[in-house]
Amino acid sequence: MKRIELYTDGACSGNPGAGGYGAILIYNGIEKELSGGEPSTTNNRMEIYAVIVGLRALKEPCEVTVYSDSAYTVNAFNAGWIASWEKGGWKKADGKPVLNVDLWQELLSLIRKHRVRFIKVKGHADNDYNNRCDALARAAIKKITPPPA
Questions:
Q1: What pairs with residue 17 in β-bridges?
Q2: What is the C-alpha to C-alpha distance for residues 134 and 29, in angstroms, rounded to an integer?
Q3: Hey, which residues are catalytic here?
Q4: What is each CA distance from 49 to 1, 45, 62, 86, 88, in whole angstroms?
Q5: How far apart are CA 89 and CA 83, in angstroms?
C-alpha cells in the first residue's frame, strides 16, 4: 500500500466570506499541489474540503497521514466525534445538528477507502508545508475576490 503524506489548510476572508483551500500530496518525494476556493463559505468548510480534495486525488487505496492545523477537522476523527455524530443521526451531544454534514459524509466515504491518520500541526508556525498550504488557500481567495473599486 502506498504511503502518502497530505498537508492541508483552509482560509476565509470574512467568516462566512470568500474561502480557499490548499493541499499538498507527497509520495516518494514527489509533491502535487491542489487549491481552489468558493465565493461564500466558512473557514471550517475550507479546512474539511482541503482534506476531501487531497483524498479525491488518490487513484487507489493508500496509507495516508493527514497533517492539518484545524483542531475541528483533526479532533472530529482523533477524539471520536465523527463516529458519535454518525451514530447519533448527525446530531451533537447537545442535540443540535452537526454543521457541514455534507462534507463530513463525503470525507467519511473517502476515508473508508484508505488507511488514514490525522496529525494536528501548529498553524502559521515552522511547518513549511502547512505554510505553503496556507499560501495556496489565500491565493485562491484572491482569484475569486474582485479587487476593490
A1: 14, 41
A2: 20
A3: 9-10, 47, 69, 124, 134
A4: 24, 6, 19, 18, 23
A5: 10
| Other beta carbons within 10 Å of 19 | 29
Whole-prediction pTM value?
A: 0.95
Angle between the 101-111 and 43-56 helix axes, to the nearest 10 degrees?
30
Which grid coordinates are listed for 103?
A: 462534507
- Measured CA to CA in angstroms, residue 145 lies from 15, 20, 68, 80, 148 at distances of 14, 10, 25, 36, 9
Starting at the edge strand found earlier in the chain, the sheet holding 62-68 runs 30-41, 17-27, 2-14, 62-68, 115-120
Residue type for 103, please? L
Buried b / exposed e over 82-120, threshold 16 CB at 10 Å, is beebeeeeeeeeeeeebebeebbebbeebbeebebebee
pLDDT in tens, 6-21: 999 999 998 899 999 9
